[in-house]
Amino acid sequence: MKAWSILIFAALLSACGKAADLEAITQGFAERKDSFKRLYSMIQEDTKIPSCFAVGLDHIGDYWAYKNKWSSSRNYERKITLELVLKEVGISNERYQEYLTLFKKTGSERIEYCSEKVEHRPDMPSWARILVHRSGLAVSGCSTTININGDGSIPATEVKPGYSRKIRPLGEGWYLNHDCT
């Protein structure tokens, strides 16, 4: 029993991953700002409907990857290839390869964008976030994103029981957002 407890604890501990180095992320943004700006302009161009849209290593539009197959939240049973996902969301393979190249340059894995025209949030400005670090488990962990809001606003740091959000302005409306639960 004791051996199982130690094994489970070790597995949980290893699942948490290493903590984000906010200084290194900030420096990386400064050194590769043009690549972050290019990702932002690309996602704006590729968001064809008044909604939120994502492109990443494991998430494109409404599709999520699992074991080299993709499925949609609208139909989990349907498993399709990356090529079909790209066709269905209207992104060419060449365009997706450009995203992958920029993800490598920026040390990121996904960009999400919500236009100003999202129906259920008409008073919200557009926003984009680029995932540069994540660690932890589904119910508890941290994620670090590089964000920009369409109106240039930057939220405040927030700390409360069970949740913290550290904000670091990066200039020109860009900011680092480090969330932990």
Q: Could you give the order of the helices and strands?
A: HHHEEEEEHHEEEEEE
Protein structure class: alpha+beta
Number of helices: 5
Q: Unreliable stretches, pLDDT < 50, 5 or more residues?
A: 3-15
Helix content: 25-40%
Strand arrangement across the biggest beta sheet = 1-6-7-8-11-10-9
Strand-residue proportion = 35-45%
Rg over CA atoms, rounded to whole Å, is 18 Å
Compute the separation of the termini in Å: 30 Å
* SS elements, strand count: 11
Textual characterization of the structure:
Residues 3-15 have low confidence and may be disordered. The protein has a seven-stranded antiparallel sheet, with helices on one face. A hairpin with a 2-residue loop joins strand 3 and strand 4. Helix 3 (33-46) runs antiparallel to helix 5 (93-106). By secondary structure, it is of the alpha+beta class. It contains five helices and eleven strands, in the order H-H-H-E-E-E-E-E-H-H-E-E-E-E-E-E.
